[in-house]
Amino acid sequence: MKLKIADIFLGLLAAAGVTGAQGQTSFSMQLVADNDFAVFGGTATGINDLLYQNNDTWSQQIPDLSTLNFTLSAGDTMFYVLGMGGGGQENISGTVNGVDITTIDVSMSSDLSPYLTDYQNQVSLSDGGSPAAGTYNASLLDVQTAFPNLTWGSPTISYSDAVIQLASPNGAGFDFASDTAPLFSFSAADVGVQPTPEPSLIMLAGLSGLSLLFFRRRK
To answer: What is the pLDDT at residue 13?
Structure first.
């Protein structure tokens, strides 16, 4: 029986490990932040998507704790959590796909707040402004602009913060400086997420395989 080109192509994709371009791209989070947070998708070299704005006042973070579900775009291999402080102790804790964030490899960036539109004006207000109220919306463009200028290091784990003690799986979370807004970076693979390759890479793998097949047939 003669094979159709489409059958050959699908077979080559399967051999390359990209059958149907399907990967486990979804993940879930249960996070609590003082004061607020947002979630982004991207790669090790940049931010591509805004996935979520929390928009809960700090006092409602624990009562409103729920499971949040996200899907990474094709080509994205990382996700990022932007912690947004509004005064006092700043922290973030919780789980991703049931994994405590303090038990996996996480990097914390330098402060993004100078790049976030009106953020520093807001946190200078007596009540911490919109970050403390949980209503500050981080702009995707602002975060993308800041990204190349960030420096990265290891976050500080805290066991003493009152919010962390109430909300985290093991009484631990990450602290950051008052009124600042750092990014926390996570590799999707560390929490069991296998991102979908970009369509162009899938097509390239298929075309390379087809070229090899026809070359062998001509020989």
So the answer is: 39
Instruction: Write the pLDDT tens digit of every residue in 128-167.
Output: 899 999 899 999 999 999 999 999 999 999 998 888 888 8
Task: Name which of 176, 85, 83 is nearest 133 in CA terms.
Answer: 85
Domain boundaries, the chain: 24-196
Say what the pTM is: 0.80
Helix (H/G/I), strand (E/B), else coil: 188: helix
> DSSP state, 148?
G
Tens digit of each residue's pLDDT (9 = 90 or more) over 22-65: 445 788 999 998 889 999 999 999 999 999 999 888 788 888 88
Q: Is 183 exposed, middle or buried (0-12, 13-18, 19+ CB in 10 A)?
A: buried
Decide: 122 and 188 in contact? Cβ < 8 Å.
Answer: no
Tokens 């990097």 -> residue: 107
For helices 5-15 and 199-218, the axis angle rounded to 10 degrees is 110
Q: Give the torsion sign (CA, 193, 172, 158, 35).
A: positive
Distance CA 42, CA 36 (A): 20
Contacts of 98 (CB under 8 A, 6+ apart): 28
